[in-house]
Amino acid sequence: MQLLSLRLENFRQHKNSEFHFPKGLVGILGPNGTGKSTLLEAIAWGLYGSERGVLRSNTEGLIWQQAPGKASAIVELTLPLGGAPTR
To answer: Which of 5, 24, 57, 67 has the fewest CB atoms within 10 Å around its CB?
Structure first.
């Protein structure tokens, strides 16, 4: 399975972020605290929900701290459908 893209809204430190993944090996680089582990956690949460061991904390800790009112954390994964060729 190939992950084509990931969109995060109000998910931890990501107010509104979108990532597109090319075929092949992908590296995620950056300073401490910039959200590298959060990307992996978001993918796991998008695939498995709140199963035990998926999240580092409870689901209330997922929502961006500066999100307005009763905002929700949103994770959208784009995967190829069936055996259709990808880009």
So the answer is: 24
Q: How do residues 56-80 score in pLDDT, each as one tens digit? A: 666 566 776 777 777 888 899 999 8
Per-residue confidence band for 39, with pLDDT thresholds at 50, 70 and 90: very high
Q: Hey, where are the domains in the chain?
A: 5-78
Specify the CATH class of 5-78 in words: alpha beta
C-alpha of 61 from chain center: 14
Q: Is 59 left (phi over 0), alpha (psi -120 to 50) or beta?
A: alpha
Q: Give me the mean pLDDT over the 19-30 stretch.
A: 92
Q: Which two tokens stand for residue 85?
A: 């060729």
Contacts of 20 (CB under 8 A, 6+ apart): 4, 5
Cα–Cα dist 21/14, whole Å = 17
